[in-house]
Design a protein that fits this description.
Four Helix Bundle (Hemerythrin (Met), subunit A); 21% strand; 18 strands; 2 domains; alpha/beta; Rossmann fold; single chain; binds ribulose-1,5-diphosphate
């Protein structure tokens, strides 16, 4: 993806390995759309922190970041007499950064499947993984765009763009591809409290001049009741054996509403988001994040010309902040994947074979 950083255009993935300094770099997603900045992760611990703090976020992007982080650990401990135990610890640290998106574990396991592997070759594997995820985003775009027609109103939730998927995006990819084909439609962008990932989606759609409107998360039911939404497309953080998905909190509400109003509901994701080992959505660990994400909000102060953090609540209340929810397969119309638009758990199983090389 091309990004303007202080007037300089760079063409980078969401996360990459800087060959010159042998370190992991990523676009800091906590500051977008106000500031576009690159964050350098010197060690695997920094990379784990960047995942935890959502400097990098979006299921496939954290999978690629975890793979690069694991390579950093291999690099750091290669030749050490406690190599194995230190790598085990690094694996655990990276894995614990965020629990719901399976991409993170899939990224680590992919690198681990080549053990013993020297740092240079491990790096080649991590780069290949990131390239493959990006290529899958492009395919998802080409496949999913067929669902989009002139005059449609599409609803999306959270941010599933290039920064969330290494490059090109998952749910956003079909929207961009259809727009580039000249189709004229409109996108409703859910704000996505509490972290407001909707502002990243709005920012990304604006880059392509795609016609869009940002709405609060509670508005989509009203719009559906008025017949103003023709289709829902959003991402996934984990897709399990029976076809249930975990995705950003609020997805389940949308799916129930969509079913009630007979609005087609699609989820788009690459191979790294598929979890063949987990049977059903009930078995997915849902991340609970800090209450400060509800009580405080970060925005841009035009007076002070900087990012600022303000408090939204008085004292005395309890808060609860689950970051994801589970949408059962029977509410899902189709899965937009690099292999086509799949409609059953059996099809998912057939197409999503584990990576072996
Ligand atoms: C899944 C998706 C959102 C995540 C991100 O990503 O819809 O990006 O819910 O959650 P993708 P978070 O579609 O790119 O697989 O912002 O908490 O990382």
């Amino acid at each position: 993806m091309k990004l303007n950083i202080n007037g300089q255009i760079i063409d980078k993935h969401a996360v990459w390995w800087d060959e010159e300094i042998n370190k992991v770099k990523l676009i800091d997603q906590t500051k977008i759309p106000f500031v576009v900045e690159i964050l350098t992760c010197n060690t695997y611990r920094d990379t784990a922190d960047a995942i935890k703090n959502m400097n990098i976020r979006g299921a496939p992007a954290i999978g690629a970041a975890a793979a690069y982080g694991f390579v950093q650990a291999i690099w750091e401990f290669w030749g050490d007499k406690d190599y194995e135990s230190k790598l085990k610890y690094a694996y655990k640290t990276l894995l614990a950064a965020r629990p719901t998106a399976i991409d993170l574990k899939n990224g680590l396991d992919y690198i681990q499947s080549f053990f013993p592997i020297d740092p240079e070759n491990a790096l080649k594997k991590a780069k290949r993984l990131a390239d493959e995820i990006a290529a899958e985003g492009k395919k998802i775009g080409q496949i999913g765009k067929e669902l989009i027609h002139d005059e449609m109103n599409i609803l999306t939730h959270c941010h599933t763009g290039a920064l969330a998927l290494v490059d090109f995006g998952s749910a956003i990819a079909p929207i961009i591809a259809a727009w580039e084909d000249g189709k004229q439609f409109h996108v409703y962008v859910d704000e996505t409290r509490p972290r407001i990932q909707g502002r990243m989606t709005a920012w990304e759609l604006y880059q392509y001049k795609i016609n869009h409107t940002v709405i609060c998360d509670s508005v989509s039911g009203y719009l559906m009741s008025k017949g103003k939404i023709d289709m829902v497309i959003l991402g996934a953080d984990r897709v399990v054996q029976n076809g249930d998905i975990a995705n950003k909190i609020g997805t389940y509400n949308i799916a129930v509403l969509a079913k009630h109003h007979q609005v087609p509901f699609y989820t788009a994701f690459p191979k790294s988001t598929y979890d063949p080992r987990t049977k059903s959505g009930k078995d997915i660990k849902i991340e609970t994040r800090s209450n400060e994400e509800i009580t405080h909000v970060i925005g841009y102060s035009s007076e002070e010309k900087r990012l600022t953090r303000i408090e939204l609540y008085g004292s005395g209340s309890k808060f609860y902040n689950p970051a994801f929810d589970v949408t059962p397969a029977d509410l899902i119309t189709g899965y937009i994947t690099p292999y086509g638009i799949l409609t059953s758990s059996q099809e998912l199983k057939t197409f999503f074979q584990p990576r072996t090389e």
